[in-house]
Amino acid sequence: MTRVVMAAIPFPGHVNPLRPIAAHLVAKGYDVTFVTGTNLRDAVLSTGAAFHPLKGHADYDGPNVYQSFPQLTSVAPGVEQIAVYLTEVLAKPMREQHEAIQEVLAQQPDTPTVVLHEMYFNGLWPIQLGAPGIRPARAIGLGVTVLPLYSVDTAPFGMGLLPDASPSGRERNARLNAEVRAAFSSAQRLAEQLVRDCGGTGTLPSYFDAQVVVADECLHLSIPAMEYPRSDLPSSVRFVGVPWEEDHQDVPLPHWWDDVLNAENVVLVSQGTVSNDDYSELMLPTIEALAGQDCLVIATTGGRPVSDLGDLPDNVRAAEYIPYTQLLPHVDVFVSNGGFGGMQMALSRGVPLVLAGETEEKKDSTAHAAWTGAAINLATGRPRASDIGDAVREVLRDDTYRAAARRLQAEYAEYDALRTITDIVETACKTPASQGTGAIGDLLHS
Question: What UniProt keywords are attached to this protein's entry (predicted)?
């Protein structure tokens, strides 16, 4: 049977979307090894997959990324911060990522192996671009955020701008794409040098394109309605839906769960698993905005102590963690800082959103969600309590947001990501990619 190697940078938001895939493949009898940081060892082992650690620069503490990379705090969110991300968080670990993949492949060099890696893990770039070593039968990228591709029809990733394919819009897009490529030129040169240092000889596309097209194909863990239309979308990109985790029926619900079941309006607020160390960004303003209102507010802290929230109003409940599969069916509005996984989880359940986020990829994920009509984007990482309150009340009052979310819910339901991915793995070794071919051809010859 085909062997599977999975790989992700050590952020929960990059590992968690892959965990259901790993668990499903293990249950199907596949030999699965998962490569990521040591901080996520237990999360990997819980799937039944073997764990192989990243080392050196690649083994950083993703949940505390701003402590691991203090350079990120000295620049403004958006393009400037993303440029630092590309250099420090994504490019510099490439050699150690490449070495980890080669170590795992060398354990069974004669066994046909498919590598499934989320698209921000760049450790496959050297071997895909001609470096010596063991080449997998197929390298498959997995999209875990909105697609960062450059396009004639969209502004570049990192700006949070809506698409515009009109003649004037394409002029805007071309100008901004050129500006962003220039802003990322240092990271681009570093990535190219690292590929060469590992023995790669091929041409590395522009950084954001490379994250999608260097793999033999890209399976985007989302639906078409969540992506801006692109006339130049590479044919190697395929939407497969979201691989949902099974319900966590074994997780005890809080003692106040009956309050959720009996409330007329339930508002959930969360800052996710990365940008959740400063509750004054979103959690506390939301609590302030909705204190005493005719709704029940559920605040989840992503594993951080609930006591850090301080004294709570009578209509607010808090927990470190509640399985979304249990909670979201009872939620009327989700207030979020725009983490892609949480957003998709809510929309797949037909829950509309109020969004406020601008770090990491959040300027773009929040803009995408608002573009669908299922969300209000406050377009800031530190919204005022009054703006949050107004937005929540608008979503509760105006049924168009709920209707848009339910249209997305219906589209998510059309996809069976786990079955599709398993079928692709089944056939991958029967038609292995040829050296120097694959998705890059779409880009280089377009």
Answer: Transferase
